[in-house]
């Protein structure tokens, strides 16, 4: 499952399931910042897309309450990134996720996020 924004950025879903998601994307020229490395906003969007898929995988609507992103390594054009989302805590009303952005086995960024979980209105 992808959304229009993910498609625009070239983000592909590799797998998703209850509380987890694995996405990938190749860094293209339009993803670069003024220094010629991957823009932090692209890395954030990749992580956020994995966060959305993992947190909405339980049959209830999940909306972000908070997120945090750490950037560790620069990423260059042509490199393929993978975002791996894992559920760290699932409660009745909130859930927290960890999303690792990797280039091969190297961790280049880390995203954490918490969602509010609400029942889907059936009207």
From TrEMBL:
Signal peptide positions (record): none
A family per Pfam: 4HBT
Annotated Thioesterase domain residues: 35-107
Annotated EC: 3.1.2.-
SUPFAM superfamilies named among the record's database cross-references: Thioesterase/thiol ester dehydrase-isomerase
GO molecular function: acyl-CoA hydrolase activity
Keyword entries, A-Z: Hydrolase
Descriptive protein name: Acyl-coenzyme A thioesterase PaaI
